[in-house]
Amino acid sequence: MTKVALITGGAKRIGRAISLHLAKNGWDIAIHYNSSKEAISELELELKTLYPSQRFSSFKVDLNAAEMTSELVSNVVDKMGSVDLLINNASLFNSATLKSSSNDLILQHTMVNYIAPFILIRDFANTTKQGLIVNLLDTRVTKNKGDFMAYSLSKKVLTDLTKMAALELAPTIRVNGIAPGAVLPPEDKDDTYLDQIAQKTPMKTPSGLLAILKSLDFILDNQDLTGQVIFCDGGEHLI
Predict the structure, then answer these.
(1) From the CB of residue 198, how many other CB atoms can be counted at a distance below 10 Å?
(2) 3-state SS class at 231
(3) CATH of the domain at 120
(4) Residue 11 lies in a domain
(5) For residue 122, is pLDDT > 80?
(6) Structural domain containing residue 205
(7) Which of 54, 73, 199, 208 has a C-alpha 20 to 30 A away from that of 30?
(8) Is it the case that residue 114 has pLDDT exceeding 90?
(9) Does residue 1 surpass a pLDDT of 70?
(10) 211 assigned to some structural domain
């Protein structure tokens, strides 16, 4: 039976690339989304056209709502029969220092970037006898720069959750993280934005989506790997 991957935020940007990559490698895909209705429709059509013998389903959930989030894994299992791989990709990324962070901004980043993954990891572990969890982190977890305070802090906590969950859930469930640098430009900028950032890194070349996909493949193929964070950031975490 084909294995099922659940990808949060799977309709756009990094999540979309992961969805297409895993489908190409034979996975059935459960794609979580919230507001990206047009993007999810286009992706589902593309996947079903490219891989007509595989299964692709979308699941609308607001990760700000704990009760809705708590239903996601069971809904995927009910519709697709199992869930073998969980990729916590969805996240908020808003700029604000500690002093300028509103209560809403703090709560939303905490909910989407940490609490929702916690809930999904818990439910995955209680549902799946054997599987794999991959959390999308950020090279910022090694730094204490506060320009994206709520975002960075939530990813730091998710990094520790990755390691703690790996210890508790072994040996039947592996838990790892991927920490990219600047992979895609913001929607209002072009690739020169990435080039400028890359010049400040040791490798001086934008990592791009391929670095994330190769890191994911490495985690999938290495059955001895758990509790690890792979930095695919051109060495940015070193500085």
Answers:
(1) 20
(2) strand
(3) 3.40.50.720
(4) yes
(5) yes
(6) 4-234
(7) 208
(8) yes
(9) no
(10) yes
What is the chain's mean pLDDT, rounded? 96
Half-sphere exposure of 157 (CA within 13 A, CB side): 16
Q: Say which residue, 38 or 187, is predicted with more confidence.
A: 38
Q: How many CA atoms lie within 13 A of 216 on its CB side?
A: 27
Tokens 């730094």 belong to residue: 143
Nearest to 4 by CA among 117, 87, 116: 87
pLDDT in tens, 79-111: 999 999 999 999 999 999 999 999 999 999 999
- Cβ neighbours of residue 217 under 8 Å, at least 6 residues apart? none
In a domain, 239, yes or no: no
223: exposed, middle or buried (Cβ count in 10 Å: 0-12, 13-18, 19+): exposed
Token reading at 8: 């949060």
Q: Is 45 buried (19+), middle (13-18) or exposed (0-12) by CB count in 10 A?
A: exposed
Q: How many domains does the chain have?
A: 1
Q: How far apart are CA 75 and CA 164, in angstroms?
A: 26
CA gap 236, 161 in Å, rounded: 22
Q: What is the dihedral of CA 173, 214, 8, 222, to 10 degrees?
A: 0
CB-based burial, 74-86: b 16+ in 10 Å, e otherwise: ebbbeebebbbbb
Which letter, b or e, does each residue of 144-181 get, where b requires 16 or more Cβ atoms within 10 Å of its Cβ?
eeeebbbbbbbbbbbbebbbebbeebeeebbbbbbbbb
> What is the average per-residue pLDDT within 138-167?
97
